[in-house]
Amino acid sequence: MTTLKQKWFWYSIASAFCWAGFAITARFGSTELPANMMQFVAAFGFLAFGLVLFAARGFRLELNRRGALYGTIAGMLLGAGGLALYAAYRGGANTAVVTTATSLYPMFTVVLAVAFLHERITFRQSIGMVFAVAAIVILSF
Amino acid sequence: MHASWLWFSLLVLLFWGTLGIVQKVTTNIISAESALIWSVIGFLVLQPLLYGGPSPLHYTSHALAWALLNGVFNGLGAWTLMAAMSAGGKASLVMPITAMYPLLVVLVAPAIFHESITRLQAAGVACAMISVILISSDASHGHSQP
Question: Domain for residue A80, yes or no?
Fold first, then answer.
């Protein structure tokens, strides 16, 4: 099965579009709101989406203790990263620079994934990673 | 190099870089939907630490609407990302592909923010597109859950 026929790939593409919307609205909102207030108000939008998803699942939630713990930590990391992002947008650089600089995070993820999850990447994918880093660096100029 | 935006950007890399791993581990245990709901709880844990200064009503409804919409996009982005991982995508592939969103931002920034795209940035966009093709081209080989 080719990559284009795999569900995870299209979910990833959809996610990229959502993050683009996230970056644009973050830039708009943070021109007026300080980072802490931006994060405070955005949490209600996040909560609203979570409630819709919860209702769509018939208010069922998996209560696995480890899953719940990691999921909660993920939410805290997401929030902390968002807070730093809003502060970066308020730092004065233009949208493209901040957005591209902060999108470097997968490189950190890949290093951790290889180290802790024992995932492997091929040579071609490694070259792709180099291009991704190059793209982000170039776009930041 | 000492601009505040840069230091805050480095913090984003640290938090969201680690986040990718935590999301992958979470979706190995529970569904993407449950993971997102638990993430909402984690997100709300930070709320008491954030509330300070003037009331939200002190700000314009426009800015508050952007912030709320931002939260919805955050939820959508996080859910689709975890759904990708839950569907078998490796963290080392899903994260780079989803991180291509600056491409879209660079493309719309001139129209929305009146920021221009230089030739150098165009070269960066090309590099990013090549990287997506390379990273995804081998994904069908040796594709496995950790």
Answer: yes
Nearest to B93 by CA among A96, A55, A113, A51: A113
Half-sphere exposure of A98 (CA within 13 A, CB side): 29
Check if the beta carbon of residue B8 is closer than 8 Å to that of residue A91.
yes
Give the Cα separation of A111 and A75 in Å (integer): 21
The reply to whether A65 touches chain B by the CB within 8 Å rule is no
Q: Is A59 on the interface with B (CB under 8 A)?
A: no
The complex scores an ipTM of: 0.82
Asked if A52 and A84 sit in the same domain, the reply is yes
Query: Are residues A28 and A61 both part of a single domain?
Result: yes
- C-alpha to C-alpha distance for B42 and B39, rounded to whole angstroms: 5
Stated pTM of the model: 0.81
Q: Residue A133 is which amino acid?
A: V
**A127 vs B39, B77, B134: nearest CB:** B134
Same domain assignment for residues A40 and A75: yes
Domain contains A132: yes
Q: Are residues A121 and A84 located together in one domain of the fold?
A: no
A72 and A131 together in one domain: no
What is the residue range of A43's domain? 15-93
- What's the pLDDT tens digit per position in B1-51? 446 877 888 788 789 889 888 988 898 999 999 999 999 999 899 888 887
Q: What is the pLDDT of residues B30-44, one digit of tens each?
A: 999 999 999 999 989
- Among A94, A109, A129, A138, which would you mutate to test the B interface (most chain B Cβ atoms within 10 Å of its Cβ)? A109
CA distance B120 to A84: 27
